[in-house]
Amino acid sequence: MIDNTEIKNAIIESWSITNDDHGVLTMWVGLNYGGSRQVFGGYALYLPKSFTRHELKSAAGHFIWRVMEIAEVSELKQLAGKTVRVRIIDGSVKAIGHIVKDDWFCPEDDFENAREVEHEQNTY
Fold first, then answer.
1. Residue 30: how many CB atoms within 10 A of its CB?
2. Of 36 and 57, which is predicted with more confidence?
3. CB of 64 closer than 8 Å to CB of 48
4. Disulfide: which of 4, 61, 85, 93 matches 46 by Cβ 3.0-4.6 Å?
């Protein structure tokens, strides 16, 4: 068996979180080896509700996905300049919503619902 393992030093030049590859949340990291470049990533970090295997197992993935979905962007870097609605309670932003559609992202509600489902699954 031949070992083709190679270790290189690299500089991270860029990163991108997108949802445009088959509608799943993915992250890419751009690497510069000092003369050549390569990307790392492409793993499905989150499956949205439209997928039959959807489960809220990643709070980070769900948060990123919903913010991107509300703002209707396919890359995180596209968020700047997008318009959203904001729900403020006692001076704190509790939810963001799509500017036209009745679609709101309230992390407290979403994560509480996920905890309740997980609790129900673990009690049977």
1. 16
2. 36
3. no
4. 61
